[in-house]
Amino acid sequence: MQLKIYNSLTAEKEIFKPILEGNVGMYVCGPTVYSNVHLGNVRTFLSFDFIYRTLMHLGYKVRYVRNITDAGHLTDDGNVDNDRFVKQTRLEKLEPMEIVQKYTVDFHKVLDMFNLLPPNIEPTATGHIVEQIELTQKLIERGFAYESNGSVYFDVLEYNKRGLNYGELSKRNIEELFANTRDLDGQGEKKNPQDFALWKKASPAHIMRWNSPWGEGFPGWHLECTAMSTKYLGETFDIHGGGMDLKFPHHECEIAQGKACNDAAPVNYWMHANMLTMNSQRMSKSTGNYILPMQLVTGDNDFFEKPFHPSIVRFCFLQAHYRSVLDISNDAMIASEKGFIRLMEAVKVLNSMTADDTKQSGFNLQEWKNKAYDALTDDFNSPILIAHLFEAVKYIFALNDGKETISTADLEDLKTTLNAFIFDVLGLQTVEENNNEKLDQTLKVLIELRNQARKSKNFELSDQIRDKLLAEGIELKDGRDGTSYVLN
Ligand code: AMP
Ligand code: ZN
Question: Is the pTM of this model over 0.90?
Answer without folding.
Answer: no
